[in-house]
C-alpha cells in the first residue's frame, strides 16, 4: 500500500529522516533576521501588493558563461544565467532553504521506500510551444544520470528504473532507500526530449524567461515567458546578463545606473555601497553561509600526495589575517561544515595557525624546495587579497610558491578540464545539507578534491542517504574528522557573499549558494 503524501509533507519527512541539515537549517533561520532586500515570494505566482510589472533588468556578472547546458555546467555564471530559462524538478524556497514543489507537483512514496509515484505540473509548456509531458521528465532524469553530468550523476545513483505512466505521471524505482532523492531533484533541470536542440547555445526550457541571444563576452539576453505556468510571473519583461570582468567598472556602472544589479560587490567597497542611499547591499547571514574559499591541491603528484605536506600547508594559513583584510567578510574555519550545523563534529581538526608545527610537518614530508604554482581566478579583489596572503603564508613556511592570476575561463580549463595545476584557489557553493557540504568540497567527481582517490570514504558518505538520522549523523561526524585530517584540499574559510542592487530593484532574495532568482523580482 502506498503512502499518499502531499509533496511538501513527503519532502519534510524525507529531509527529517536524512542525516543532513533540516535541524541546522531550521535553527539558522530561527536565529537570523531576513536581509533587508528580502520580499515575500508570491504563492503559486500570485502578485504581491505594490509590485510593478515590466522593464528590463540589467545584471552585471564577472565572467561570460561557458555553456547554458544545465547538465554539464561548471561555473556560477553558467548556472545563474540558465536558472532563468529552466525549471528544476524541485526548488528551494529561497527564504527558508526548504525544498518546495517545482515541476514535480506531488510525490507518493511506497511503504518499502523503494518507489516514488510522481505527478508533474499540468499545463506547462516549453518555450518552443510544446507541452511538457512525463516523458520529458524521464529524459531529463536520464540526462542528469549520465557520467558526464558530474554534478548530479552520483546523487541519482539510487535510481534503478524510470517509467512513464501517462502524460503527467511517472514512477521512479530505487535500488535502495534514498532519503535525499527529492533534495537532489533540485539540481535536475527539465529540458524537452528533443535531440535537435543544442542546450549549450540555444537553450529551451519551461522557465520564467526565454532565451533570445548570446553575444559572446558581452551579454546573454532573455525575455519574459508569456505562457509561464506560475500565473502572474515573472514581473520583468526581460533580463540582460552583462559580462563585466573588472569589479571597479562593474560597481561604477551600478552607481551610475547603467546596470541594476551586480553579482559581487568588491570587498573594499562594501561599506561604500552600504552607505549609498541609492544602492542596496544584499548579503546572506553568516549563520547561513555554506560557501567556502578553498585551496585545491593536485593530489596526483608530489609533493601533494604526501599527507604531512598537505597538513603543513593547512597549519600555515593565516585565516585571521584574511578576515581582517576582508573587513570581516570572512568566516574563520577549516571545515566545510559550519559550527551551527546539527552534524558538525567539534573534534574535527581545526588547523589553527601554527607556523612552528607547520615547519616541522614540512620537514617530515621531505619537500625539496620544488617550485609550485599557486593559480587563482581574478573575479573580485578578495581573490587577490586571499591569494597574496596564502602566497606569503606558503613562503613563510618555506615553500617555493609562485602566484599566478588568470581569467575564469582559463582557470576552469587548466583546473577542471586539463587538471594541469599544482595549487588552485577558488570557492564553492554546496547545497545547505551536510552530505553536499562534504561531497561538494571533497567529492572527486562532483567536488573539489579532483585527484583524491579514497573510494571507501565516498561510498560511506553516499550511504548516509539510506540511514536513519541518528546513525547517519554519527557517520557524517566521523567522515568530517577523517577528511579534514587527510586534507585532500583545504577549506580556507567561509565565503560571505554580497551582491549590489539599485534601490529600485525589489523582491531579490540572497541565496547561500549564490544562485540568483529573478522570477519574483521587479523594478520600481
What does this protein structure show overall?
Pfam families: SBP_bac_5. This is ABC transporter substrate-binding protein. Keywords: Signal, Transport. Residues 1-18 form the signal peptide. InterPro entries: Peptide/Ni-bd, SBP_5, SBP_5_dom. The longest helix has 18 residues, at 469-486. Helices cover 29% and strands 21% of the residues. With 524 residues, it is of the alpha+beta class. Residues 1-47 have low confidence and may be disordered. It has a seven-stranded mixed β-sheet. Strands 15-19-14-18-16-17 form a six-stranded mixed β-sheet, with helices on both faces. Strands 1-5-6-8-7 form a five-stranded antiparallel β-sheet.
- Report helical residue fraction: 25-40%
The gross shape turns out to be globular
Structural class: alpha+beta
Assess the beta-strand content as a share of residues. 15-25%
- Amino- and carboxy-terminal Cα gap: 52 Å
The total beta strand count reads 22
* Largest sheet, spatial ordering of strands: 9-10-11-2-12-20-13
Low-confidence stretches: 1-47
- Compute the average pLDDT: 87
Total DSSP helices: 15
Largest sheet: 7 strands, mixed
- Taking all Cα atoms into account, the compactness measure Rg is 23 Å
Pfam families: SBP_bac_5
Signal peptide: 1-18
Protein name: ABC transporter substrate-binding protein
Family: Belongs to the bacterial solute-binding protein 5 family.
